[in-house]
Design goal:
The structure is a homotrimer of 203-residue chains. Chain A is mainly alpha-helical. Chain A has nine helices and no strands. Chain A starts with a helix and ends in a 12-residue tail after the last helix. The interface between A and B is medium-sized, with 34 and 35 residues.
Chain lengths: 203, 203, 203
């Protein structure tokens, strides 16, 4: 119950990030909703395709699309008033990242994926929606540009998989993994951690 | 038979739209054909992947690729003479949109997808080829920019699904859905209907 | 054994091409590795999704990702010294193209795909990683712009499929197909063969 609630929070946050990207591109209402739906549901759809779950869950469960659509509409109509929420949105985004990483990894394990596959699929589930969002609006994905974004996702998925391999209770593993991933992401944002750029430009 | 013929018309129209986009980008002959094939077959391939049909039908049925390739070659060599056909192409495109939406939805139902999934998969099958085309040539997808494009696709798929749920004969449902979707698309083009753009630009 | 070795050579070459594209885009280390992994493993992942192999092999076999990651790191740290290797990389890339085309086609046949599907899936497996790489870094795919790139891939896959249909020994077919595809690609590079561009720009 708590888990399902958190999943919807993740969808809302990612859908809002997509809708905001659409508004910035001056898209019409419908285009904004499409980018919002893509960002909110895309990670889970890619995860399902990698796991052979067809149709993907978001195509069967109407609540996912409805929640993502609602968040997109909200952003479209109230974004001028979102200014002060920007910092908070960064926090929600970090929570969504952690949550999608751990729930996707756990879902992959449940469907019989290997440990290695579960870690990768967890990370792809966490970052996939954002990549699709950026490809749609024709930008180099934030994943590639942003400081330390996918590493927390890998960490969260890894915690879940190791925890499960050690026989720990699943719900607690999800919680620990999410806290670890979200915490590392927030720490990276706060400390402005970055990976190096190559020193010499290729000719 | 009539249905199969219309499906090929849809592939031809979408392949031609892709090839034209490639010509505009000054691609070589082969690149033009690749974009044409992607636009003509992409929607069906995405639909099949979402439904777990592997390999996708267009990889198994050589006629689909052949028809799309022929349309691409035709556009490459005769596009300077297409000027006057532009308006007519808009009509064919609307027909293709309606047809792909209804046949994809019907196909999804046949494979046991839920009603909700069939509507979404119908719409994705109708717009998917165009999105892949635009991503390949590095543009923001028309789907996101164009007035009222995906709504007719959703309508067509919805008509097919509701019709089937009410127990109506399938062929007639396909026809009604296609007419509804194509009609709404043409009406939107004729009346220049648009969705609103957000009033305030985010800072 | 020899085949497995060559497969890893293919992954290394494509991963290096992706990492180099990332370095040129001034991405951070992590982004460079993501593009490298995408280019090195993407073709195989797309091939597996088209064939219904889930999770894709590269998600289950840790060696693939490790090799691609190693190649990406190498490029990131030593690319300033790669200048003289550029010509050689073109050769490796041609080898990778041929190898991915033939092994993907052979793999598709083993999984029961039709002859037609095996040829197409072989070509997609060979060019898919490069297309994903270019879409990620927001460029029109080289596949669409480059002289005579996908034709050798189609040839290599075709040789494998015809060879198998004639009952020839599989390993030899892989070798002949790879030599044919790589040879045609190198010949095209050497002779600077190009497809025509449409004479008239559409208005």
């Amino acid at each position: 119950m708590f888990l399902a609630l958190l999943t919807y929070v993740g969808i809302v946050v990612f859908a809002a990030s997509g809708a905001l990207a659409g508004v910035r591109r001056r898209l019409e209402l419908f285009g904004v909703c499409v980018v919002g739906l893509t960002a909110g549901l895309g990670g889970g759809i890619v995860r399902d395709l990698l796991l052979g779950v067809t149709p993907p869950v978001s195509f069967d469960r109407w609540t996912n699309a409805t929640v993502a659509l609602g968040a997109s509409l909200l952003v479209f109509y109230v974004h001028p008033h979102l200014g002060r929420l920007r910092g908070v949105i960064g926090v929600y985004d970090a929570v969504g990242l952690g949550l999608f990483a751990t729930t996707s990894a756990s879902y992959a394990l449940d469907l019989g994926a290997s440990h290695f596959a579960a870690v990768l699929i967890g990370a792809v589930g966490a970052v996939g929606g954002g990549v699709l969002r950026d490809v749609l609006v024709n930008e180099v994905p934030l994943l590639l540009r942003r400081d330390l974004y996918a590493v927390p996702a890998l960490l969260g998925a890894l915690v879940v998989v190791v925890w499960a391999a050690l026989g720990g209770p699943g719900d607690l593993g999800l919680l620990v993994g999410t806290v670890a991933a979200t915490g590392l992401r927030l720490l990276g944002m706060w400390r402005d951690w970055n990976f190096p750029v190559s020193a010499v430009e290729p000719t």
